[in-house]
Structure formats: structure tokens, C-alpha cells
Amino acid sequence: MSELFPKELLDKGYETPDGSFAWQYSDLPEVLQTIVSGNKAILGGGMSAIVNGRSLNPFTMVDEDFEFPMWSTKPQNTDEDWTSYCRRTFEESLSELDSLKLDEIIQHNEHILFRPVYAGSGDPLLLVPRDKHDHARAEAAIAAGYPAVEPVLPQLLEWLQDMNWPVAQTLATFLAGIGPPLIPHVKKIFETDDEIWKYWVIREILTESQPLTEALQTELKRIASSPTKSELEEELDVEAREVLELHRLN
Q1: Which of 9, 33, 124, 244 is a plausible cystine mate for 250, CB 3.0–4.6 Å?
Q2: Residue 45 CB neighbours (<10 A)
Q3: What angle do CA 161, 166, 169 make, to 5 degrees?
Q4: 1-121 — its CATH code?
């Protein structure tokens, strides 16, 4: 990322642990212009807070009533060349940021910074939905197929955290059909404490895949026989028993 921006612009920003940068609102026009001048498309971005020297991601709640807003740009049109698309994402970003009316928030939160998300032509990140209604990118991911989506499988699986999200319903069948390449990513999901995410992965992915269920059978059998309190509350034990029985692994 640092190769894209001149040193004086990087010096104004805050480097996060993952190597990305966030900037103050006043620096955003220059930052976004630099991205587009580097032949990159701006996919959107979000607000980050620097708390005790640590950057919180755009989804973090800083208190009970305030969630950082994000902005997104529309996917590339079929009749739109890459350069025109990049330029449009710059204009859309400025318009979206202006519509958020952030002046009051910024005035009272000096530690709030903005982190843009961007991609070059052919970057798999272009296939990741930006919001729960982003069927265009979801359908682009499906059209690209595997292995084109391999680098962004973790991001695509994140959209199965809630099957009430419209885009989750678009992606579920496609992801289930990928099969064994999902094994390491699904195992990581089962290492989290997100029981609802596990629930939907069992129901939407493992139900449709014998190889994935076999790879997770140790954890599934543990959940089926000795569920934790939170797993019981989300009925993961029921789902685990059913998928094991479906694939004759119980």
C-alpha cells in the first residue's frame, strides 16, 4: 500500500497493524485523488477511531448509540472502461462522504480517521460485496467461480454470518459448491465464538458438502454431545447432530 502514496501523505496518516492507512477527513480528497491517479478504483471505506494508540475497525461500536458509518461505490458497469470506472468511484466517494454530514461528528471526535478501500484491475477484492444488498458483486464472484475467488473466500464467508442478509442468500449455494478448498476457512469459523455464524455454516454449507462435514466431524461431534451454554442457546447441538446424521457420520 505504501508504494501508492507519497511520503508526505503517508506521514499525515496512521498506519494500522494490518499495514493499511487511515487519514483525517481533511486529507481525504488528496488521498482519494492519489488512489485514482494510481489507476485504482475506490470501493468505499469507513471511519476508524484511534483509541489508546490502537485503530478500531469501521464496524466497531465506540459506545452503545454510535456506529461508524461507511461509504461504498457502485461496481464497474459492463460498458465502462477501467479508467472511467476509477474516476467515477472518486466522484461517488466525495458525494457519499458529503451526504453523510460528518462535520459535527468530526468536530467532537478528533481521533476519528478515514480508511479507504481500493483495488486494481483484476483484484479479487472487486468480487466481495460491499453491503448486504450488493448482489452485483456477489453475482460477479459467482460468475468468476473458483479458483478466481480463492483469495477472498474468508471475506465471502463473512456474508454468511446472517442469512437474513439478501446477499448471503445469493452466495450460499455457490460457496457450498466449492467444497474441500473451504476446509481451512470453515475450521477458522469454528474457532470463533460466533455461534450464529457457525449455525448458518452448518445449515447452508456443511449440509451440502460431505467432504466439509467429514473435515469438521470432530468438532461437530463435540458440539452434538457436549455443547457449551451458548451453543445450546443457538441450537447448534441440534444442527450438528442433524448434519452428522445426514452424511452418516454419527
Answers
A1: 244
A2: 26
A3: 70
A4: 3.30.190
Domains of the chain, by residue range, sit at 1-121
Give the Cα separation of 94 and 91 in Å (integer): 5
| CB neighbour list of residue 240: distance below 8 Å, 6 or more residues apart | 202, 220, 221, 223, 224, 227
C-alpha cell at 60: 466497531
Q: Residue 248: what residue type?
A: R
What are the mean pLDDT values of the chain's consecutive 10-residue runs (250 residues total)?
Answer: 88 83 90 98 85 50 44 94 98 91 65 89 96 95 98 97 96 97 97 97 97 96 97 97 96
Q: In sequence order, which residues have a C-beta less than 8 Å from that of residue 238 and are 6 or more positions away?
A: none
Biggest distance spanned by C-alpha atoms of the chain: 61
